[in-house]
Amino acid sequence: MGGEDGTDFADLPGKLCIMRHDANQMRWIIAVICAVAAVLLPAYVRAEIKTKIAALAPSDLVLVVDQKGNELVAQNADKPFVPASVAKIVTATLAVEVLGADHRFETRFYLDKDRVLYIRGGGDPFLISEELATLASALVAAIGRQPLSGIVLDASYFPSDLRIPGIEQTGEAYDALNSALAVNFNTIHAVRKGKAVLPGEAQTPITPLATNQFLARGPNGRGRISLAQEPGVALQYAGELIAAFIERAGGLPIGKVSTGLVPPGLQPVYVHRQSRSLPIILTEMLSGSNNFVANQVFLEIGAHQLGGPVSLEKSLRVANEVLAKRGLAGSIQLEEGSGISRNNRLVARGLVALLGSFEPHANLLRKGDGAYFKTGTFSGVRTLAGYADTSKHGRVRFVIALRGNDSALRFKILKAIQSEL
Q1: Which residues, including other chains, have CB under 8 Å from residue 139's CB and lie 6 or more apart?
Q2: What integer pLDDT is reported at residue 17 of this predicted model?
Q3: Other CB atoms closer than 10 Å to residue 80's CB: what's the count?
Q4: Is the peptide bond before 263 cis (omega within 30 degrees of 0)?
Q5: Residues 6+ apart with CB under 8 A from 190
Q6: What residues have CB less than 8 Å from 132, skipping those under 6 apart?
Q7: pTM attached to this predicted model
Q8: CATH architecture of 50-99+281-420
């Protein structure tokens, strides 16, 4: 029996069976090809990016891991490196864990029967002019507008002989002295015109000490100098600036500014809690790469856990205990918290592990072009670390540490990672 076109319907079941067999065989072949491609293609892609990175920075360090911790690129990943300001990621991680997101720095004010105002510093890193204006208004409301006999500054929360490794005796803002009571990051921003010194910003009045210091050490024109040379000078400036803001807030003239201790038993009349939460402080620390802020936070970590006064030894002890619990004691070795010391040492695998726990807070880092990152820069050192979105592996964690002064190269490597992984 056949059809009009000559088809033999008696053979049709057999032919259909052959066709099904061929289709099944083809599906099997396609599945095998896809499985092989799934294995070989990523390996080929990784080989390509490894070759490109080796061509760009043959002797430098690059480590990239995916969300599961699989290493996608590992070049010289076991070599300890100088992190420079990438160390601030470690400080931020420790701060979130030890201090907590709700932590607020405090500055305490006391008034005795003779209307002497005592100010006890608590290491607040953000006693900047805008904060001082708010502080002064609340303080005047608490103590009244009657004249003050004087101001006594109590900076005993920080030992007078505290020194941060890597901080040098220069007028550069990044060398600013850490202190229990510091204003505007222990720096003066002003404009020098001949023998006249004018405010560098409208919100900050010029005090007598600021004028003298800027005439002695400031540049011609606009600039910023640190007060790192003498702790007493920095403390005097803090007292003068706070007094100026008290007068702006309606307080009557104030007597001499001096240093000393709060008398035993005297109770605070006002406690100022920093308006910025810890995450905001960390965001500004990371984005501005502020060494002063980083070490103020790092020093608070130790005192918060072990009690005041602060000390570098206390903070290093707490840091090492936290890192040891994560199995990172051998791969993250700090000398201070900002990265300004060249004796800080990190191992890339330890840092990417730390980045894994810090990822919920990735938005505290600087953001740009599909990445959250922190840079580090020294003479002869260029580092970059953080998180990046890639086309095939989603978000990855990365560490790049280069020897040399080519700042653009680290971002060129990052772009290659993003586009080819």
Answers
A1: 109, 246, 249, 251, 270, 272
A2: 53
A3: 17
A4: no
A5: 197, 198, 199, 200, 206, 210, 214, 218, 222, 223, 224
A6: 183, 241, 242, 245
A7: 0.87
A8: 3-Layer(aba) Sandwich (3.40)
